[in-house]
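Posting here for the record, re: 5-O-phosphono-beta-D-ribofuranosylamine.
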Amino acid sequence: MLPRVASSDEPLRLAVLISGGGSGLTALLRYQEAEPRAHQTVLVLADSTDAGGLDHGLERGIQSAGIPLPDIADRVERRLAHEELVHGALLAAEVELVVLSGYMRILTPNFVRRWKGRLVNIHPSLLPKYPGAHAHRDALADGATVSGCTIHLVDEGVDSGLILAQSEVEVKPNDSVSDLQERIKKVEHVLYPEVLDRLAVGGFSV
Ligand code: GRF
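Prediction output follows.
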């Protein structure tokens, strides 16, 4: 189920989930501040309390919290319990669309099923090429001359859901992982807000 069709009068309520510095989050918040949009960020969640990106939400008065993994010995139970906490926070904030933006945890099918169609991710490669946590390293090792980013709905697989949009980025001959990462992030910061605009106003049919 896709999110409801929203407008700038009744914007879609987004949660942005991050793990790190949140440059993508900042770009989205700036975009939303610039003029009325059909989506607004009402919640920022991280999987640790020290994720730098939380400050970007807090300094704008947006409810922002780190939810660390609970202290449970069994790995599977720990993951599920963590996702219950995240799910509870999303419901409490009446979130309508979950935006993964550098969230470095693989979500369980249990969580994905609850948010299916209302859960989007950005991945720094042209999927299906280079899924997983090391997209830039894998692109460089493969001798790719073009990479980019992909925005997709999240399904039960890893970086495998329906592709909504992609942007290409040139790989230059002596690029390091961080050169390529920074060049791709610039494009991500433009593409993600645009795709969210389109998703919020019912511009995709799946
Ligand atoms: C982005 O490149 C995104 O594609 C990937 O993680 C990075 C997040 O960077 N999933 P930041 O935390 O937004 O700076």
